[in-house]
Amino acid sequence: MSKTIRFHAGKVDYDRDTNRCTPLAHKGVISIKPSVDEPDFYDFTWVPKADLTAGGTVDRDELLLIPGDVSFKHIKSCTSGRVFALTFLSSGAKYLYWLQDVGDIDQLDKLTEKDLQIVKDIDELITIKDEEEEEEEKDEAKE
């Protein structure tokens, strides 16, 4: 897949002591596209939008996604928004983001159709599927 995935998201601050996630006020955009340097990898960037009301500065994230070494999972325990964790399996590094496109106002943690499509697109990029795994899945489905 050679398309670029782009969507609005903010960063989330995680406090290990209280085990609480706090969305930062800054609005931003996540972009995932094939890496120019490494054709099998993907460049992940989170860039803050120019938002004078949020105050302060937030550093941009520039990460290299290696399929098979990263996961993108919905944090279901967060009920005040749609928060996702980008986790690197080899290092354990974790980055948290909250989706900023308008969702269900009554249920802030409910994923929208657009959210589900974003997750599906990202999973397709970061999951390694070889022919052997696909055959195993077909065999399991028959049983």
UniProtKB/TrEMBL annotation:
UniProt keyword tRNA processing present: no
Superkingdom as given in the UniProt entry: Eukaryota
Domain Pru positions: 1-129
Major location category of this protein: cytoplasm
Keywords of this entry: Cytoplasm, Nucleus, Proteasome
GO molecular function, one term: proteasome binding
Compartments in which it is found: Cytoplasm; Nucleus
Cellular component, GO, one term: nucleus
GO biological process: proteasome-mediated ubiquitin-dependent protein catabolic process
Pfam families found in the cross-reference section: Rpn13_ADRM1_Pru (PF04683)
PANTHER family in alphabetical order: ADHESION REGULATING MOLECULE 1 110 KDA CELL MEMBRANE GLYCOPROTEIN (PTHR12225), PROTEASOMAL UBIQUITIN RECEPTOR ADRM1 (PTHR12225:SF0)
Protein name per UniProt: Proteasome subunit
Species this chain originates from: Scheffersomyces stipitis (strain ATCC 58785 / CBS 6054 / NBRC 10063 / NRRL Y-11545) (Yeast)
